[in-house]
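A reminder from the course coordinator: this example appears on the midterm review sheet, so study it carefully.

Given structure:
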């Protein structure tokens, strides 16, 4: 009887801890998926061909990833191509006029809870959205907070992701194009 109760207790403890372990693994996988999406935008931005028939040295397409912490948008990220305007400077942020290459839906209860910008930063409630884009031939990331005319360019940003159990992971993007995952 004692042996059976010890076995039942240990089994119950393992089953209870499995949920926490599982959420941690899912959140880490999500963080890597976000980092991979940013890296995909960087690859597209650096690999794009100049399609101007007149041979203009200007590249027409910037590629980027758009994040928003608004309640209806915090469970998705959008990989986009900023092809407008065809002449002049790109705005380098998602404003709905771009071509959506892919929309990634975040599942299993995880969500984007916020962002920060600047060295040594922590969660900043004043930043509502984040756009990270790349335009050939420059491999540096253009990191824009809050989009639109209020877009502030920064050299460093973090995207904070949260699982159902409250655990948090962050993805760090530097202007140099380096992307890393933090606990």
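Designed residues:
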């Amino acid at each position: 009887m004692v042996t059976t109760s010890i076995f039942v207790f240990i089994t119950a403890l393992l089953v209870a801890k499995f949920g926490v372990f599982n959420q941690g693994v899912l959140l880490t996988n999500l963080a890597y998926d976000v980092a991979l999406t940013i890296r995909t935008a960087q690859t597209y931005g650096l690999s794009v061909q100049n399609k101007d028939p007149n041979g203009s040295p200007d590249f027409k397409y910037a590629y980027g990833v758009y994040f928003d912490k608004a309640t209806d948008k915090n469970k998705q990220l959008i990989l986009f191509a900023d092809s407008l305007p065809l002449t002049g400077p790109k705005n380098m942020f998602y404003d709905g006029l771009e071509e959506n290459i892919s929309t990634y839906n975040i599942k299993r209860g995880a969500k984007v809870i916020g962002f920060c910008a600047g060295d040594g930063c922590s969660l900043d409630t004043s930043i509502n959205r984040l756009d990270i884009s790349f335009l050939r031939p420059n491999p540096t990331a253009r990191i824009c907070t809050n989009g639109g005319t209020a877009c502030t360019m920064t050299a460093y940003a973090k995207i904070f992701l949260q699982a159902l159990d409250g655990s948090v992971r962050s993805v760090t993007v530097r202007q140099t194009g380096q992307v890393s995952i933090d606990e």
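The radius of gyration is 20 Å. The chain has one helix and ten strands.
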